[in-house]
Amino acid sequence: MERLLIEGGHRLEGAVQIVGAKNAALPQLAAALLSPEPLTLTNLPDVADVRSMMTLLEHYGATVLARSGAVTVDAAAVVNREAPYDIVRRMRATILVLGPLLARFGHARVSQPGGCAIGARPVDLHLKALSALGTTIALDGGSIDARAPDGLRGGRILFGSPSVGATETALMAAVLARGETEIMNAAREPEVADLCACLVAMGAEIEGAGTHRILVQGGRALRKARHEILPDRVEAGTYAVAAAITGGQLELTGARLEHLAAVGEALEAAGVRIWPTDRGLMVSRPGRLKGVDITTEPYPGFSTDLQAQFMALMTIADGASMIRETVFENRFMHVPELSRLGANITLQGASAMVRGGAVLRGAPVMATDLRASVSLVLAGLAAQGETVVNRVYHLDRGYECLDKKLVRCGARIQRLRD
Ligand code: EPZ
């Protein structure tokens, strides 16, 4: 087991290269299963979840060739077998192979993913989407068994509430369904729009990407394709908070401000300066921080994946901040750990009242999920003395070389192995 030893109190200064988005890479790797022609993806992040997805594709018989930042998946010889529970248990995004396998082979079985630290994480909307395209779904022995022996046919999918993953399942299935599919109340996250761009590069016909209504003309033959993954807005937002919480200045090369609008607005209201440069974004915090209220929402609202990071920042701001989490039902696992560092936070249902002005003091803390873990690292950067963040495998699932990138900008961090 590895842990990070952080000596706080050092302002960060320098540049950080923002890598490709994990949450765009995962669905696009799954999309490679749709086609017998190779798909090459560039700008893939080197993180554990992406490596797990590539291992899963090989489990299905696809060949995955990684060469200088590009990965080519050749799924011509895929054998349609079940995704085993031990892979699904480790990574919920495995559910994303269900749509492509069903669309291509008329049948797919995937272990039903359980819940995780941030919530029950049901997949009912994924199954609703597939049913709308002519699929028979059965649940047996903990597995989802999806069948469409005559192939999928286009239809209308109306989501009661937007879901990133379910929209991605709907898109990938619709690409091979006969006829037109209309997806209503689709998720508008940039990663969904990037999946659409990848599918179009593969030969699909899609309009409305990034809007709440997407139309797919299915049944087109898919071709060999190449696509560049968009930059990771969550990684960018995380380093923006790192600059702000240490009173430093970081240039986030490759970051796009338009993907961080709601987060950027909240940071500016808190006293952080953000401006575009010809290489990406500059983030600086010259003066004092102010408490700001936020509510997480589906895109383009404030990203739930940056809630924990923003909360860490608010613990040292002047005044109070009310933080409401509306996307997941249990995404405050970082609160008791931040409190161990001296933060003053009161939980009430889906809201956290952060009473700012804390003087954070280093202590051993426990990582629980990807974004909660990084909020503890951020708080450790500002805390007096040493903070030890345990179970950093959570971090490595979604952040590429986080500790090395921070050390290059002036942080004092050691990665210790038990
Ligand atoms: C994606 O998860 C991301 N993961 C999450 O990032 C992100 O937090 C989330 O979208 C919201 O933006 C990947 O893209 C791999 P949802 P996803 O379906 O697709 C409920 C990270 O830290 N729901 O948009 O699972 C669900 O429980 C991760 O990088 C259903 O009820 O999220 C949640 O309350 C964490 N039924 C809400 O919808 C369903 O069938 C939004 O979930 C599906 C979802």
Automatic annotation (TrEMBL):
Any one GO molecular function term: UDP-N-acetylglucosamine 1-carboxyvinyltransferase activity
Family as reported in the entry's similarity comment: Belongs to the EPSP synthase family. MurA subfamily.
2-(S-cysteinyl)pyruvic acid O-phosphothioketal modification, residue list: C116
Domain Enolpyruvate transferase: 7-406
Residue positions binding UDP-N-acetyl-alpha-D-glucosamine: R92, R121, P122, V123, D124, L125, D305, V327
Pathway given in the UniProt record: Cell wall biogenesis; peptidoglycan biosynthesis
Active-site positions on this chain: C116
Catalytic activity: phosphoenolpyruvate + UDP-N-acetyl-alpha-D-glucosamine = UDP-N-acetyl-3-O-(1-carboxyvinyl)-alpha-D-glucosamine + phosphate
EC class name: transferase
A GO cellular component annotation in the UniProt record: cytoplasm
Binding site residues for phosphoenolpyruvate: K22, N23
Disulfide bond recorded as keyword: no
Function statement: Cell wall formation. Adds enolpyruvyl to UDP-N-acetylglucosamine.
Single Gene Ontology BP annotation: cell wall organization
EC number(s) on file: 2.5.1.7
Provenance organism: Alsobacter sp. KACC 23698
Annotated gene: murA
UniProt-annotated location(s): Cytoplasm
Keywords (A to Z) from UniProt: Cell cycle, Cell division, Cell shape, Cell wall biogenesis/degradation, Cytoplasm, Peptidoglycan synthesis, Pyruvate, Transferase
Protein name, as recorded: UDP-N-acetylglucosamine 1-carboxyvinyltransferase
